[in-house]
Design brief:
This protein is α/β, with parallel strands linked by helices. The protein has 16 helices and 18 strands.
Length: 417
């Protein structure tokens, strides 16, 4: 499907994470605050201008609904087009200063992608602390590039949990308490509602500890399973899939968002008048519409690969490069000479010490996984590397992971029910 493409910004026009109170990083602390649980060790809660205190005061339960891939610009476009009438009604009430709803724009984390963002929401820690820095990362623990959702070899099958791959413990690997465990210590019962296929995955095992897992077999069932708990985390994943394959501007995107809108409207009809429930709807990241002609095939950069000890990892709009011993300067020079038009080289110290991945102490794991340099995509370019010859890596019509406003800015709807 052809895509209307708006020109993307240079890295100099980037949106950086607003970890001081206007980002996904601040949501867990606000949830703890609302439910009367200590947020000690977490970042600051959301700024009052983002989550008005009147919406939190007196709330006895919280539903956090995360819509994977719903950027703020995508929601605005859908509201303008009439694709989501329930959400449009919330937006209209928020603009009229109705006391029971607000709509604000916040930032994702960096990288602006699913694994870092969901790990942050699941632990209350920044990517710099939890170290889950992309769809793929180089894990020195296993000496190879790994796919983190599955928590297994990027070039293979299975999970490091499997006996044939060592039977490793994902919870011990992460080494960070989850938000659900924190809530349980404070006497708050929590549950996770998402597709049943995610049960037992590496990422689920790491970030859902302490919650009851309520699996569904269709996205339309997700809100059906959302009932009485003090804290509910619900994850609607398919908008991201549609945006990758069909783009964030087409009829498929409108149809999937419309399905969410209908499901949410029905659920709210059943719960109107409850009075004690705070509903928070947000996203992990947005999408940049991508021209397939701007695909950079990193497997073709053979001189670069020869100087790396791991294939490039990260996301399609962000690559972590791990140089062989003594070849870091050669890697940087190659990127400056051959790739500067499509991606900007960023020093790991710049990304970490300037707080791109979050404030506070940086974990040893995060320092290892950012490698010796980062390539951050310019405009709408995407960086592709196939880890296995039997897994095709076609261009995506929508991508994320870098610092474009379209991928970094996400909505936050807060509704008192």
């Amino acid at each position: 499907m052809s895509q209307t493409r708006a020109p993307g910004p240079t890295l100099g026009e980037a949106v950086l994470p607003r970890y001081d109170g206007q980002s996904l990083f601040n949501l867990p602390a606000s949830i703890c605050e609302t439910l009367g649980v200590s947020g000690s060790g977490l970042g600051p809660p959301l700024d009052p201008t983002v989550l008005p205190p009147a919406l939190r005061d007196g709330a006895q339960a919280v539903l956090l609904l995360v819509v994977d891939g719903l950027g703020a610009w995508q929601l605005e476009a859908a509201l303008t087009a009439g694709d989501a009438p329930v959400l449009a009604a919330f937006a209209a009430r928020a603009r009229s200063s109705a006391g029971d709803v607000s709509l604000r724009t916040i930032t994702s984390v960096f990288p602006s992608s699913t694994i870092p963002a969901l790990a942050t929401l699941g632990t209350g820690r920044s990517p710099a602390a939890h170290g889950l820095l992309g769809w793929t990362v180089y894990l020195e623990e296993f000496g190879e590039a790994a796919e983190l959702a599955r928590w297994g070899p990027a070039a293979g099958r299975g999970s490091y949990q499997d006996a044939r791959l060592g039977g490793h413990d994902p919870i011990r690997f992460l080494g960070v308490e989850t938000l659900h465990q924190r809530l349980a210590r404070g006497g708050v019962e929590s549950a996770v509602v998402c597709l049943a296929a995610f049960r037992g995955s590496g990422l689920s095992a790491m970030t859902f500890q302490g919650a009851e897992f309520l699996g569904c077999h269709a996205a339309s069932s997700i809100l059906v399973r959302v009932e009485q708990r003090l804290y509910l985390y619900a994850y609607w994943d398919l908008l991201d899939t549609v945006s990758h394959h069909d783009g964030p501007l087409g009829a498929e995107h409108a149809a999937e968002l419309g399905a969410l809108d209908v499901a949410l409207g029905r659920w709210l009809d059943r719960h109107q008048g409850r009075g004690d429930l705070l509903v928070l709807l947000t996203a992990d990241h947005g999408h940049v519409p991508s021209d397939p002609a701007r695909t950079v095939r990193l497997e073709g950069e053979r001189r670069l690969l020869a100087d790396l000890r791991s294939p490039p990892t990260g996301e399609r709009r962000l690559a972590y490069l791990h140089a062989r011993s003594g070849r870091r300067d050669a890697v940087r020079a190659y990127c400056a000479d051959r790739l500067a038009a499509v991606a900007e080289w960023v020093e790991p110290t710049e990304a970490l010490d300037r707080g791109w991945l979050g404030p506070g102490p940086v974990s040893a794991a995060a320092r290892r996984r950012v490698g010796d340099g980062l390539l951050v995509a310019r405009s709408d370019h995407q960086l592709v590397y196939p880890f296995s010859p039997d897994r095709a890596q076609p261009p995506f019509a929508g991508n994320h992971g870098a610092l474009d406003p379209r991928e970094m800015l996400v909505p936050l709807i807060a509704l008192r029910v």
